[in-house]
Amino acid sequence: MSTTQPDSAWNRDNPYPARLRSQYPLTSAAAVKQVHHVEVELGDSGLHYLPGDTLAVRIENDPALAAEVLELCGLTGDAELEHLLTIRYELTQAHPGFYKYYASCCHNAVLQDLVADPVKLRSYMEHRQIVDILREFPAKLSADQLLSCLRQLQDRQYSIASSQRLMPDAVALTVGLVQFSHDGHARSGAGSSYLSQRVTAASRLQIYINSNANFRLPQDPAAPVIMIGPGTGIAPFRAFLQERQATGAVGRNWLFSGNRHRNEDFLYGSELTAWQQSGLLTRLDVAFSRDQPERIHVQHLLQQHAADVFAWLQDGAHVYVCGDAKHMAEDVQKALLALIEQQGRLDANAARQYLVGLRQHKRYQRDVY
Ligand SMILES: Cc1cc2nc3c(=O)[nH]c(=O)nc-3n(C[C@H](O)[C@H](O)[C@H](O)COP(=O)(O)OP(=O)(O)OC[C@H]3O[C@@H](n4cnc5c(N)ncnc54)[C@H](O)[C@@H]3O)c2cc1C
Ligand SMILES: NC(=O)c1ccc[n+]([C@@H]2O[C@H](COP(=O)([O-])OP(=O)(O)OC[C@H]3O[C@@H](n4cnc5c(N)ncnc54)[C@H](OP(=O)(O)O)[C@@H]3O)[C@@H](O)[C@H]2O)c1
User: Which domain holds residue 78?
Assistant: First the structure.
């Protein structure tokens, strides 16, 4: 769990107004999911970060979305309210409180039934943003009613993708753009679209560092590391590798990463290949899930190289997993357990104990979201 840096002048209560240094796509226009590299200036902030930390960003909504919300509620043209919705209120992530208040404001029986069924509500919420619900169940609201349905806009967190030893005055992020369509309307995630599409050189990004003591490189620079991070899960490992290079750490580095197509979305592909050639990356195994008829994911590569992975573990390797919590992290854990069981000639219980032992010794760390 990350915590705000307590000793910094810049924190959740007082974020640092940072300039954007650069922002460019890491994916081609054809990619299923757009991912951007974003660099933010730390200027004279004195902010410090370590590989494994995350950057919290106080985001802003798309003003066009705020206008759409107002229009749906019959409040078109209230410029002050539109600005307030843009900077202060959560307009994308729906939450049970929203459904509850909104159902009571618009006296809609279908919505009230939904609120009474938490399981149904959860799956309903996953596929709709607040604006989609306003469109599906239209009602005229007063400004006070609307604001009492909404909650405060949450800061978004991004794994830091740089080492401060290499980039003392800036911080890099790897931002996957959340984009989908609902009932013919194009929708985006608030934070990822802010960072990928709306920030400009003139913007000031409100930021602070969340330190994460539970996602750290080994103290012993000679210890081997195995990093598993498909998609945006690559972000902290770019920071880890820059750090291992900058400190001259002699430990071996093995990265399992990947994405959908080598030609469209191999994130930091040329850097990783160069690190493989220079020897910083002892091994690089990349799963391009959709470059062949059968899906191939990082856990399949772990299985394929089970004997070597287990040998690295026996040599004291630290294992790190970053990225999707919903499916990837669990599938990777299953693959690790299976290879420990098979290669270590252990039963399932003993394999679990082996992994518990790794975790207790901080040799199995996850940063999943
Ligand atoms: C510790 C940590 C580290 C992280 N690191 C990174 C990182 O390095 N890179 C990165 O990109 N992200 C990272 N994230 C995730 C990031 O914080 C945001 O959650 C992410 O950018 C999405 O936020 P958003 O504001 O764009 O989307 P939101 O505005 O929060 O929108 C999400 C909402 O949209 C809806 N939705 C989303 N997808 C669909 C769909 N397909 N169909 C229908 N509805 C949908 C859902 O209702 C969902 O609640 C990290 C998160 C944590 C906690
Ligand atoms: N809650 C949050 O804050 C938040 C924020 C951002 C993202 N996310 C979630 O995190 C997920 C990861 O986002 P991302 O951009 O890093 O990844 P992504 O773009 O969804 O996927 C990256 C790669 O992982 C593969 N993959 C899919 N399922 C897998 C599995 N079970 N095991 C291993 N690999 C798998 C994908 O393959 P295929 O798709 O081809 O199978 C793809 O090649 C997203 O799906 C999103 O829902 C959550």
Answer: 63-149
